[in-house]
Amino acid sequence: MKIFKLLFALFMLASITSCKDRRTPKVEYMPDMYVSIPYDADDAEGLNGNPVNSKPVAGTISRGGHPSYDIPDTADGYDKAKAELKNPLADSEKNLENGKKMYEIYCISCHGKKGDGNGYLSQVEKFEGIPSYKDRDINAGSIYHVIMHGKNLMGSHSSQLTYNERWQIIHYVEKLRADL
Ligand code: HEC
Fold first, then answer.
1. Taking CA atoms, which of 2, 134, 167, 175 is between 20 and 30 Å from 56?
2. What pLDDT score was predicted for residue 62?
């Protein structure tokens, strides 16, 4: 009986200490779950040799999605956005609050806490010509356009922000502008 106990103890010891060895690769069960196979949607071979229809049909909008922004980065485009785009989100506490949060991440470094153009990057003269919002004749549509395309030294912020976050920031920028 003793020998069994001893063998059992040795077995447990071996199985515990063997876990310590991090250099040898572990057994992967179902490796597809770790490393997915990147099927190419444009490739007619696709899954199992059949075409994969995973691209949205042109002109359609996914459920819960938003139309892509197709107003061009031109002076006419700017005027069009300014004349036509309206903020689809309510000027609510919640939207303003999240707008402020996003503004303080993405815009404050240049435009400053109050929107007067006196952010840190302006103070250290890293960026010049950052305007006070008060001095610009802007509205929700033009601000959206500038977030999407940027303007001169200001780059586009379209990829950092979701559709809703952009419009929430716009509510906040308009509030800052009114308070200046
Ligand atoms: C790297 C610095 C920088 C950051 C970050 C930045 N801006 Fe700007 N922004 C500028 C500069 C510079 C201008 C002046 C562009 C011009 O008119 O030449 C400007 C101009 C603007 C204008 C006025 C455009 C007009 O139509 O006259 C708005 C509105 C604006 N920014 C909003 C934002 C918002 C919203 C964010 C954050 C999502 C942001 N900016 C982030 C540098 C910045």
1. 167
2. 77
